[in-house]
Predict the 3D structure of the following.
Amino acid sequence: MIQLSERLSANRRIPIPQTNNSVYNASYDIWWNPDALFFMLKTSVNPARMGYFKRILQELPAHGTGKTLLDVGCGGGILAEEFARLGMSVTGIDPSLSSVETARHHAYLQHLNITYRTGAGESLPFADNSFDYVSCCDVLEHVFDVDAVLAEISRVLKPGGIFFYDTVNRTWLSWVFLIKIAQDWKRWAFMKPDQHLYHRFIRPSELTAKMVDAGLINQEVRGMVASYNILKTLYWLRKRTAGKWTFRQLGERMKMREGRDTNLCYMGWARKA
Ligand SMILES: C[S@@+](CC[C@H](N)C(=O)[O-])C[C@H]1O[C@@H](n2cnc3c(N)ncnc32)[C@H](O)[C@@H]1O
């Protein structure tokens, strides 16, 4: 990713700094180990976003089985596997080789036929109009060039194809929770410094406008809401930093749900024009 960002910034003079994406290159399993941070994407985040995406899919005239889906920024395959279980033909792509290897191995163990490739969302190695659906979840706040990623997603989608997304809003709440508590204040922190950067968070209105520029027409935005109060959260997080709880125990409690409040995280879907 560092090489990619240097190349792109030389070409387009886009400002850095960038999020610290080195965490995704760990040499051990950071995705499917229940005691790893990113397993919380499965326990805390997947139920909310997959519940929502499944509902949207069911409302579409022809959906699911036999359709092709590309998961951009697939990481260890936590979301890609959910789509594959719906009977779709799934391809996952991620710049992190170690994450892609983890995803491949896990899909093999699960007898899931998913194709995984390494590559960045800014330059997708697929032909125009290749996929019925593209998902890009918990990724847009980490990429170097959001506009380029959206343009590429639109290019590889078939006309009328559907884009599923979720990301982090840029608000005082996301600053307090995801920058200060999650990263900076060591008493509670559970992420590495700079894993998220406040200025990389995207407001729903900004994302909608960027999607229009890319030829993607937004259909809906829904909140991804933390269904637990802040004091309880701080108590749980302290248990983990104090070594009394693992990420597994944390993930079992910190569940997100679909809701109206988009102040922290939000999800939605768009259609290629
Ligand atoms: C928080 S993880 C989300 C993983 C997965 N989408 C999920 O929700 O389970 C962010 C992922 O974005 C990937 N990523 C970072 N920069 C990217 C880029 N430019 N294009 C595509 N993926 C990128 C990282 O390697 C990492 O796997």
Notes: The chain has one domain: 2-272. The mean pLDDT is 92. Residues 1, 21, 24, 41, 72-75, 78-79, 94-96, 99, 120-122, 137-139, 142-144 surround S-adenosylmethionine (CB under 6 Å).
